[in-house]
Specification:
With 78 residues, the chain is of the alpha+beta class. The protein has a single domain (2-77), classed as YefM-like fold (3-Layer(aba) Sandwich). It has two helices and three strands, in the order E-H-H-E-E. It has helices at residues 6-11, 13-23; strands at 2-5, 27-31, 34-39. It has a three-stranded mixed beta sheet with strand order 1-2-3. The longest helix has 11 residues, at 13-23. The protein is rod-shaped. The relative contact order is 0.14.
């Protein structure tokens, strides 16, 4: 884990954040040699309703045709 002084972090904050996002390696910011904060990348949460089970199932066969043939539909017999 990288460490850097607060003054160096202040001077290159945006560059350090871009590096953290790219590599995923956290950085500890120190003040007078004492660790003050740890900057870590954000892990996106999977709270999206749509697509949360993508890749979990395999479609086999015909999924569009009705299960019961049209000849057996009561609504069409009237």
């Amino acid at each position: 884990m990288k460490q850097m002084r607060a003054s160096a972090f202040k001077a290159r904050c945006l560059t350090v954040m871009k590096d953290i996002q790219a590599t995923g390696e956290p950085v500890v910011v120190t003040k007078r040699g004492t660790p003050v904060v740890k900057v870590v990348p954000v892990v996106p949460e999977k709270s999206d309703l749509f697509g949360f089970m993508a890749g979990e199932f395999k479609v086999v066969g015909d999924i569009e045709s009705p299960v019961v043939p049209q000849k057996q539909w009561e609504i069409l017999k009237k």
